[in-house]
Amino acid sequence: MGFFSKFSNGLKKTRESMSDKLDSALSGFKKVDEELFEELEEALITGDVGVRTTEDIIERLREMVKKQRNKNPEDVRRAIAEIVAEMMDGGEELKCTTKPSLILMIGVNGAGKTTTIGKLAMQFKSQSKKVILGAADTFRAAAAEQLEVWANRAGVDLVKHNEGADPAAVVYDTISAGKARSADIIICDTAGRLHNKKNLMDELGKISRVADRELPDADKEILLVLDATTGQNGLNQAREFKACAGITGIVLTKLDGTARGGVVVAIRNELDLPVKYIGVGEGIDDLQPFDAKEFARAMFETPESDEAEEDI
């Protein structure tokens, strides 16, 4: 299956929901006017893009229509896709050029954090990179055991302590093992809760100090894993975690199971957090590196996307 097809199939529910709303708005108008803008605004808000981001999109759309003198409502869909692509673009590439590089994974329980770590490990392993995992989410029952299943499946090393151990100690031992074993990528599972921001800040602060001390010159990514099915609540989670941790990017899971994928746009626009990966299925290959242009094409199914798909 081609790269665009993965995005397209994974965003099927979101696209169908969004397309229905946009089609309804566009079909009733013969020209681009203020009433059409109001209909489009409602369509985007109900598509879980969010009020603030929708207002930004509509404002840019007005400027684009005025500049390009678009008078055909059907041109509007293409214009919206272009605006969203521009809004989402930038910072999506994972920064892991040093040896070793460190990835810290955070996120609430149930978002798919452990599964995402396992899929990433398998993808890195398929690129002939040596990977070591650290089970530093020590407060969730059986978290280490679940990560161990993925480590065995991926054929990578795992460092774990007993349940309830100090997460920073696990990170320290994982980094030490990674350096001793010449690992390319160190991935640590941590911070699976958000009910107490002070505890979370203390925990992440301690982990960050350990990482900076032990790997002062290494590339580091702090990725927040969010469940797309939570919609705008995912945006709120991202806002809370951003206030507690130096998040460098987002991994949005379960996009294939929701019509609320528009929240990706809101997260990128309102929090200035790049999306690094999206999960569009259960398979290993269904964890896809994010591509803003492909995402916009798949989300709005513009005429260009049909032509491009024929070439794939």
Give me a quick take on this structure:
This protein has 312 residues and is an alpha/beta fold.
- State the shape: elongated
Structural class: alpha/beta
Taking the alpha carbons of the first and last residues, their distance comes to: 9 Å
- Give me the side-by-side strand order of the main sheet: 3-2-4-1-5-6-7-8
Output the helix-strand order: HHHHHEHEHEHEHEHEHEEHH
The percent range for strand residues is 5-15%
Radius of gyration: 21 Å
Q: What does the average pLDDT come to? A: 87
Low-confidence stretches: 303-312
What is the overall number of helices? Answer: 13
Count the beta strands.
8
Helical fraction equals: 40-55%
Largest beta sheet, briefly? Answer: 8 strands, mixed
List keywords for this structure.
single chain, 312 residues, alpha/beta, 8-stranded mixed sheet, 13 helices, elongated
SSE diagram, text form:
Blueprint: H1 3-10, H2 12-27, H3 34-46, H4 51-68, H5 73-88, E1 101-106, H6 113-126, E2 131-135, H7 143-154, E3 157-160, H8 167-180, E4 185-189, H9 197-214, E5 220-227, H10 232-244, E6 249-253, H11 263-271, E7 275-279, E8 287-289, H12 292-300, H13 303-311
Parallel strand pairs: 1-4, 1-5, 2-3, 2-4, 5-6, 6-7
Antiparallel strand pairs: 7-8
Summarize the structure in words.
By secondary structure, the protein is of the alpha/beta class. The chain is 54% helix and 13% strand. Strands 3-2-4-1-5-6-7-8 form an eight-stranded mixed β-sheet, with helices on both faces. Mean pLDDT is 87; it is low at 303-312.
